[in-house]
Amino acid sequence: MPFVQASDITKRFNGTTALAGVDLTVERGESLALLGPSGCGKTTLLRVLAGLEVPDQGSVIVSGSTLADSTTFVPPERRRIGMVFQDWALFPHLTVARNVAFGLDKAEIGRGRISETLELVGLLHLADRYPDELSGGQAQRVALARALAPRPRVLLFDEPFSNLDTGLRTQVRADVAELMREVGMTSVFVTHDQEESFVVGDRVAVMHEGRIVQVGRPAEVYQYPVSPWVATFLGEANVLNGVANHRHVSTIVGHVPLADPVYGPCQVVIRPEHLTVGLGDKAVVSSVEFYGHDTSYELAVNGTTMLARVIAAPRFTPGDRVEVTYAGPNTVAFQTAAHQGP
Ligand code: ATP
Q1: What does the pLDDT read at residue 339?
Q2: Looking at ligand 1, which atom is closest to the CA of residue 210?
Q3: Ligand 1 atom closest to the CA of 11, numbered from 1
Q4: What is the rounded distance in angstroms from the CA atom of residue 79 to the CA atom of residue 225?
Q5: Partners of 157 in the beta sheet?
Q6: CA-CA distance, 174 to 52, in Å (whole number)?
Q7: Which residue in 317, 315, 314 sits closest to 293, CA to CA?
Q8: Rounded to an integer, what is the distance from CA 91 to the centroid of its chain?
Q9: Per-residue pLDDT for 303 more than 70?
Q10: Do the Cβ atoms of 79 and 67 come closer than 8 Å?
Q11: Exposure of 338 by Cβ count < 10 A (0-12 exposed, 13-18 middle, 19+ buried)?
Q12: Of 301, 304, 272, which Cα lies nearest the Cα of 289?
Protein backbone atom coordinates (compact mmCIF):
# COMPACT_ATOMS: atom_id res chain seq x y z
CA MET A 1 0.00 0.00 0.00
CA PRO A 2 1.33 3.51 -0.79
CA PHE A 3 2.47 5.58 2.19
CA VAL A 4 -0.06 8.34 1.40
CA GLN A 5 -3.26 7.40 -0.32
CA ALA A 6 -5.95 9.98 -1.07
CA SER A 7 -8.94 8.48 -2.87
CA ASP A 8 -11.85 10.12 -4.65
CA ILE A 9 -11.43 13.44 -2.83
CA THR A 10 -14.18 15.92 -3.59
CA LYS A 11 -14.41 19.41 -2.14
CA ARG A 12 -16.87 22.16 -3.01
CA PHE A 13 -16.95 25.76 -1.79
CA ASN A 14 -20.43 27.24 -2.26
CA GLY A 15 -20.90 26.84 -5.99
CA THR A 16 -17.25 26.05 -6.84
CA THR A 17 -15.97 22.50 -7.18
CA ALA A 18 -12.33 22.80 -6.10
CA LEU A 19 -11.64 19.04 -6.17
CA ALA A 20 -13.64 16.65 -8.33
CA GLY A 21 -12.74 13.11 -7.29
CA VAL A 22 -8.96 13.24 -6.89
CA ASP A 23 -6.90 10.07 -6.45
CA LEU A 24 -3.31 10.59 -5.33
CA THR A 25 -0.64 8.28 -3.96
CA VAL A 26 2.81 9.08 -2.60
CA GLU A 27 5.31 6.35 -1.80
CA ARG A 28 7.39 6.36 1.39
CA GLY A 29 10.37 8.69 0.95
CA GLU A 30 9.08 9.99 -2.35
CA SER A 31 8.90 13.63 -3.31
CA LEU A 32 5.80 14.36 -5.37
CA ALA A 33 5.26 17.65 -7.20
CA LEU A 34 1.66 18.78 -7.59
CA LEU A 35 1.65 20.97 -10.67
CA GLY A 36 -1.22 22.93 -12.18
CA PRO A 37 -2.43 26.37 -13.19
CA SER A 38 -3.89 28.88 -10.76
CA GLY A 39 -7.24 27.80 -9.29
CA CYS A 40 -6.98 24.11 -10.28
CA GLY A 41 -7.24 22.95 -6.66
CA LYS A 42 -3.62 22.34 -5.61
CA THR A 43 -3.77 24.22 -2.31
CA THR A 44 -7.15 22.72 -1.45
CA LEU A 45 -5.76 19.21 -1.96
CA LEU A 46 -2.77 20.01 0.25
CA ARG A 47 -5.09 21.39 2.94
CA VAL A 48 -7.23 18.25 2.77
CA LEU A 49 -4.10 16.13 3.33
CA ALA A 50 -3.06 18.33 6.25
CA GLY A 51 -6.53 18.22 7.81
CA LEU A 52 -7.13 21.96 7.36
CA GLU A 53 -10.14 21.21 5.11
CA VAL A 54 -12.74 18.52 5.58
CA PRO A 55 -13.39 16.77 2.24
CA ASP A 56 -17.04 16.38 1.15
CA GLN A 57 -16.21 12.91 -0.05
CA GLY A 58 -13.24 10.54 -0.23
CA SER A 59 -10.58 9.25 2.13
CA VAL A 60 -7.04 10.04 3.24
CA ILE A 61 -4.88 7.21 4.55
CA VAL A 62 -1.29 7.72 5.74
CA SER A 63 0.93 4.83 6.74
CA GLY A 64 -2.07 2.52 7.04
CA SER A 65 -4.12 4.78 9.33
CA THR A 66 -7.25 6.50 8.13
CA LEU A 67 -7.11 10.26 8.72
CA ALA A 68 -10.31 11.17 6.90
CA ASP A 69 -13.25 9.32 5.41
CA SER A 70 -17.04 9.47 5.76
CA THR A 71 -16.89 8.62 9.47
CA THR A 72 -13.37 9.66 10.56
CA PHE A 73 -11.63 13.00 10.82
CA VAL A 74 -8.28 13.26 12.56
CA PRO A 75 -7.51 16.92 13.39
CA PRO A 76 -4.36 18.50 11.88
CA GLU A 77 -2.35 18.52 15.13
CA ARG A 78 -2.72 14.74 15.45
CA ARG A 79 -1.76 13.87 11.88
CA ARG A 80 2.01 14.35 12.10
CA ILE A 81 1.92 16.09 8.76
CA GLY A 82 4.03 19.26 8.54
CA MET A 83 3.23 22.16 6.29
CA VAL A 84 5.69 24.75 4.95
CA PHE A 85 4.18 27.90 3.48
CA GLN A 86 5.37 30.47 0.97
CA ASP A 87 6.93 32.89 3.42
CA TRP A 88 8.78 30.30 5.59
CA ALA A 89 8.29 32.87 8.38
CA LEU A 90 10.67 32.54 11.32
CA PHE A 91 9.92 34.20 14.65
CA PRO A 92 12.16 37.29 14.48
CA HIS A 93 12.57 37.63 18.26
CA LEU A 94 13.74 34.02 18.73
CA THR A 95 17.18 32.57 18.00
CA VAL A 96 17.62 29.85 15.39
CA ALA A 97 17.65 27.19 18.14
CA ARG A 98 14.47 28.53 19.74
CA ASN A 99 12.75 28.74 16.37
CA VAL A 100 13.53 25.05 15.89
CA ALA A 101 12.36 24.28 19.44
CA PHE A 102 8.92 25.65 18.60
CA GLY A 103 6.53 22.70 18.43
CA LEU A 104 8.88 20.29 20.24
CA ASP A 105 8.02 18.90 23.64
CA LYS A 106 10.43 19.12 26.57
CA ALA A 107 11.43 15.48 26.32
CA GLU A 108 12.49 15.84 22.68
CA ILE A 109 14.43 19.03 23.49
CA GLY A 110 16.11 17.17 26.37
CA ARG A 111 17.14 14.39 23.99
CA GLY A 112 18.99 16.93 21.82
CA ARG A 113 16.51 17.12 18.96
CA ILE A 114 17.33 20.81 18.27
CA SER A 115 21.03 20.21 17.59
CA GLU A 116 20.26 17.01 15.75
CA THR A 117 17.93 18.78 13.34
CA LEU A 118 20.19 21.80 12.89
CA GLU A 119 23.04 19.44 12.10
CA LEU A 120 20.84 17.73 9.52
CA VAL A 121 20.41 21.02 7.64
CA GLY A 122 24.08 21.98 8.21
CA LEU A 123 23.40 25.00 10.42
CA LEU A 124 24.37 23.93 13.92
CA HIS A 125 27.02 26.68 14.01
CA LEU A 126 24.28 29.33 13.63
CA ALA A 127 22.13 28.11 16.54
CA ASP A 128 22.46 31.36 18.51
CA ARG A 129 21.86 33.78 15.66
CA TYR A 130 18.64 35.73 15.14
CA PRO A 131 16.70 35.52 11.85
CA ASP A 132 17.83 38.98 10.70
CA GLU A 133 21.45 37.76 10.90
CA LEU A 134 20.84 35.00 8.33
CA SER A 135 20.98 34.96 4.54
CA GLY A 136 17.77 34.13 2.66
CA GLY A 137 18.95 30.60 1.98
CA GLN A 138 19.98 30.02 5.60
CA ALA A 139 16.62 31.31 6.86
CA GLN A 140 14.85 28.78 4.69
CA ARG A 141 17.05 25.97 5.98
CA VAL A 142 16.12 26.98 9.54
CA ALA A 143 12.44 26.96 8.61
CA LEU A 144 12.96 23.51 7.12
CA ALA A 145 14.68 22.36 10.32
CA ARG A 146 11.72 23.67 12.30
CA ALA A 147 9.35 21.66 10.09
CA LEU A 148 11.51 18.51 10.34
CA ALA A 149 12.14 18.70 14.10
CA PRO A 150 8.82 17.15 15.27
CA ARG A 151 9.48 14.17 12.95
CA PRO A 152 6.50 14.58 10.63
CA ARG A 153 5.49 11.56 8.57
CA VAL A 154 4.89 13.79 5.57
CA LEU A 155 5.94 17.35 4.72
CA LEU A 156 3.69 19.48 2.53
CA PHE A 157 5.10 22.54 0.75
CA ASP A 158 2.78 25.20 -0.68
CA GLU A 159 4.63 27.20 -3.38
CA PRO A 160 7.69 27.27 -1.08
CA PHE A 161 10.04 29.10 -3.44
CA SER A 162 7.76 31.64 -5.08
CA ASN A 163 8.83 34.58 -2.88
CA LEU A 164 12.51 34.17 -3.70
CA ASP A 165 14.28 35.97 -6.52
CA THR A 166 15.40 33.86 -9.47
CA GLY A 167 19.02 33.13 -8.50
CA LEU A 168 18.25 32.17 -4.92
CA ARG A 169 15.19 30.18 -5.95
CA THR A 170 17.19 27.88 -8.24
CA GLN A 171 19.71 27.23 -5.49
CA VAL A 172 17.26 26.82 -2.60
CA ARG A 173 14.90 24.49 -4.44
CA ALA A 174 17.77 22.19 -5.46
CA ASP A 175 19.02 22.29 -1.87
CA VAL A 176 15.66 21.49 -0.33
CA ALA A 177 14.92 18.71 -2.81
CA GLU A 178 18.31 17.13 -2.10
CA LEU A 179 17.80 17.36 1.65
CA MET A 180 14.34 15.76 1.42
CA ARG A 181 15.89 12.86 -0.50
CA GLU A 182 18.79 12.61 1.94
CA VAL A 183 16.55 12.32 4.98
CA GLY A 184 14.06 10.12 3.12
CA MET A 185 11.18 12.46 3.88
CA THR A 186 7.88 11.83 2.10
CA SER A 187 6.89 15.18 0.66
CA VAL A 188 4.41 16.92 -1.58
CA PHE A 189 5.37 20.22 -3.26
CA VAL A 190 2.67 22.44 -4.75
CA THR A 191 3.86 24.56 -7.64
CA HIS A 192 2.55 26.17 -10.82
CA ASP A 193 6.06 26.25 -12.29
CA GLN A 194 6.79 23.34 -14.63
CA GLU A 195 10.58 23.59 -14.34
CA GLU A 196 10.35 23.63 -10.55
CA SER A 197 8.10 20.56 -10.51
CA PHE A 198 10.65 18.65 -12.59
CA VAL A 199 13.51 19.60 -10.25
CA VAL A 200 11.80 18.80 -6.94
CA GLY A 201 9.53 15.93 -7.96
CA ASP A 202 10.51 12.28 -8.24
CA ARG A 203 7.08 12.18 -9.86
CA VAL A 204 4.85 14.98 -11.05
CA ALA A 205 1.05 14.99 -10.71
CA VAL A 206 -0.51 17.37 -13.22
CA MET A 207 -3.78 18.97 -12.06
CA HIS A 208 -6.42 20.65 -14.18
CA GLU A 209 -9.83 21.91 -13.05
CA GLY A 210 -10.03 19.91 -9.84
CA ARG A 211 -8.68 16.66 -11.27
CA ILE A 212 -5.32 14.97 -11.58
CA VAL A 213 -4.95 14.38 -15.29
CA GLN A 214 -1.54 12.68 -15.37
CA VAL A 215 1.08 11.35 -12.95
CA GLY A 216 4.55 10.21 -13.90
CA ARG A 217 8.26 10.82 -13.75
CA PRO A 218 9.21 14.24 -15.16
CA ALA A 219 10.68 12.84 -18.39
CA GLU A 220 7.65 10.61 -18.85
CA VAL A 221 5.03 13.35 -18.56
CA TYR A 222 7.11 15.69 -20.73
CA GLN A 223 7.66 13.17 -23.49
CA TYR A 224 4.33 11.36 -23.33
CA PRO A 225 1.67 13.87 -22.28
CA VAL A 226 -1.85 12.41 -22.18
CA SER A 227 -3.49 15.36 -23.95
CA PRO A 228 -2.61 18.45 -25.98
CA TRP A 229 -3.48 20.50 -22.87
CA VAL A 230 -0.88 18.66 -20.74
CA ALA A 231 1.66 18.94 -23.58
CA THR A 232 1.34 22.72 -23.80
CA PHE A 233 1.16 23.17 -20.03
CA LEU A 234 4.46 21.27 -19.60
CA GLY A 235 6.58 23.61 -21.69
CA GLU A 236 6.42 24.76 -25.27
CA ALA A 237 4.72 22.42 -27.73
CA ASN A 238 3.55 22.58 -31.32
CA VAL A 239 0.32 20.69 -31.76
CA LEU A 240 0.19 19.94 -35.51
CA ASN A 241 -2.40 18.20 -37.63
CA GLY A 242 -1.34 15.00 -39.32
CA VAL A 243 -2.49 11.68 -40.59
CA ALA A 244 -1.27 8.68 -38.64
CA ASN A 245 -0.65 5.18 -39.85
CA HIS A 246 0.32 2.88 -36.98
CA ARG A 247 3.58 4.23 -35.56
CA HIS A 248 4.16 7.25 -37.72
CA VAL A 249 2.34 10.44 -38.71
CA SER A 250 2.78 12.47 -41.88
CA THR A 251 2.87 16.16 -41.09
CA ILE A 252 4.06 19.36 -42.70
CA VAL A 253 7.43 18.77 -41.03
CA GLY A 254 7.77 15.27 -42.44
CA HIS A 255 7.27 11.85 -40.91
CA VAL A 256 7.11 11.81 -37.13
CA PRO A 257 7.56 8.52 -35.20
CA LEU A 258 4.99 7.63 -32.54
CA ALA A 259 5.35 5.86 -29.20
CA ASP A 260 1.97 4.14 -29.59
CA PRO A 261 -0.06 3.21 -32.66
CA VAL A 262 -2.60 5.79 -33.91
CA TYR A 263 -4.65 5.74 -37.12
CA GLY A 264 -6.15 8.47 -39.28
CA PRO A 265 -6.50 12.23 -38.70
CA CYS A 266 -4.77 13.30 -35.51
CA GLN A 267 -3.01 16.04 -33.60
CA VAL A 268 0.64 15.36 -32.94
CA VAL A 269 2.75 16.92 -30.19
CA ILE A 270 6.09 18.27 -31.38
CA ARG A 271 8.50 19.94 -28.98
CA PRO A 272 10.29 22.96 -30.50
CA GLU A 273 13.70 21.49 -29.63
CA HIS A 274 12.91 18.49 -31.84
CA LEU A 275 12.70 20.56 -35.01
CA THR A 276 15.76 21.42 -37.07
CA VAL A 277 15.97 24.55 -39.17
CA GLY A 278 18.21 24.73 -42.24
CA LEU A 279 18.52 26.19 -45.71
CA GLY A 280 15.41 25.51 -47.76
CA ASP A 281 12.07 26.70 -48.99
CA LYS A 282 9.32 25.14 -46.86
CA ALA A 283 8.80 27.77 -44.15
CA VAL A 284 9.14 31.51 -43.64
CA VAL A 285 10.82 32.86 -40.50
CA SER A 286 8.42 35.27 -38.80
CA SER A 287 10.48 36.08 -35.69
CA VAL A 288 13.75 35.18 -34.02
CA GLU A 289 14.65 35.30 -30.33
CA PHE A 290 18.21 34.64 -29.19
CA TYR A 291 18.49 33.43 -25.56
CA GLY A 292 22.26 32.91 -25.41
CA HIS A 293 22.16 29.15 -24.92
CA ASP A 294 19.76 28.69 -27.84
CA THR A 295 17.66 30.43 -30.46
CA SER A 296 13.90 30.29 -30.92
CA TYR A 297 12.43 30.71 -34.41
CA GLU A 298 8.78 31.32 -35.07
CA LEU A 299 8.02 29.83 -38.48
CA ALA A 300 5.04 29.88 -40.81
CA VAL A 301 4.43 26.80 -42.96
CA ASN A 302 1.37 26.99 -45.24
CA GLY A 303 -0.53 29.11 -42.74
CA THR A 304 0.51 27.05 -39.69
CA THR A 305 2.68 28.78 -37.11
CA MET A 306 5.22 26.76 -35.15
CA LEU A 307 8.20 27.24 -32.87
CA ALA A 308 11.62 25.68 -33.35
CA ARG A 309 14.46 25.89 -30.81
CA VAL A 310 17.97 25.36 -32.03
CA ILE A 311 21.19 25.20 -30.00
CA ALA A 312 23.13 27.75 -32.02
CA ALA A 313 23.27 31.51 -32.50
CA PRO A 314 20.72 32.84 -35.05
CA ARG A 315 21.54 31.94 -38.66
CA PHE A 316 18.32 33.33 -40.14
CA THR A 317 16.35 36.56 -39.87
CA PRO A 318 12.63 37.33 -40.27
CA GLY A 319 11.53 36.92 -43.88
CA ASP A 320 14.10 34.19 -44.70
CA ARG A 321 12.82 30.99 -46.26
CA VAL A 322 14.03 27.85 -44.49
CA GLU A 323 13.58 24.10 -44.26
CA VAL A 324 12.06 22.70 -41.05
CA THR A 325 12.22 18.99 -40.26
CA TYR A 326 11.34 16.75 -37.36
CA ALA A 327 14.41 15.24 -35.71
CA GLY A 328 13.19 14.02 -32.33
CA PRO A 329 12.28 10.82 -30.49
CA ASN A 330 8.95 8.96 -30.63
CA THR A 331 6.17 11.30 -29.63
CA VAL A 332 2.42 11.19 -29.00
CA ALA A 333 -0.59 11.87 -31.23
CA PHE A 334 -4.29 12.17 -30.47
CA GLN A 335 -6.84 10.90 -32.92
CA THR A 336 -9.21 13.71 -33.99
CA ALA A 337 -11.87 11.72 -35.84
CA ALA A 338 -13.35 8.26 -35.61
CA HIS A 339 -11.29 5.83 -37.64
CA GLN A 340 -11.66 2.17 -38.41
CA GLY A 341 -8.17 1.25 -37.12
CA PRO A 342 -5.53 -0.74 -38.96
P1 ATP B 1 -3.28 28.99 -6.87
O2 ATP B 1 -2.15 28.39 -7.64
O3 ATP B 1 -3.81 30.25 -7.51
O4 ATP B 1 -3.03 29.12 -5.41
P5 ATP B 1 -4.74 26.50 -6.52
O6 ATP B 1 -4.54 25.54 -7.63
O7 ATP B 1 -3.97 26.28 -5.28
O8 ATP B 1 -4.55 27.98 -7.05
P9 ATP B 1 -7.08 26.43 -4.84
O10 ATP B 1 -6.61 27.53 -3.94
O11 ATP B 1 -7.05 25.07 -4.31
O12 ATP B 1 -6.31 26.48 -6.23
O13 ATP B 1 -8.57 26.79 -5.29
C14 ATP B 1 -9.36 25.95 -6.12
C15 ATP B 1 -10.70 26.61 -6.36
O16 ATP B 1 -11.45 26.65 -5.16
C17 ATP B 1 -10.61 28.05 -6.85
O18 ATP B 1 -11.65 28.27 -7.77
C19 ATP B 1 -10.82 28.85 -5.58
O20 ATP B 1 -11.38 30.11 -5.89
C21 ATP B 1 -11.77 27.99 -4.80
N22 ATP B 1 -11.59 28.13 -3.35
C23 ATP B 1 -10.52 27.76 -2.62
N24 ATP B 1 -10.69 27.99 -1.30
C25 ATP B 1 -11.92 28.55 -1.20
C26 ATP B 1 -12.70 29.01 -0.08
N27 ATP B 1 -12.24 28.94 1.19
N28 ATP B 1 -13.91 29.53 -0.34
C29 ATP B 1 -14.41 29.57 -1.59
N30 ATP B 1 -13.73 29.15 -2.70
C31 ATP B 1 -12.51 28.64 -2.49
Answers
A1: 64
A2: 14
A3: 16
A4: 34
A5: 84, 189
A6: 28
A7: 314
A8: 29
A9: yes
A10: yes
A11: exposed
A12: 272
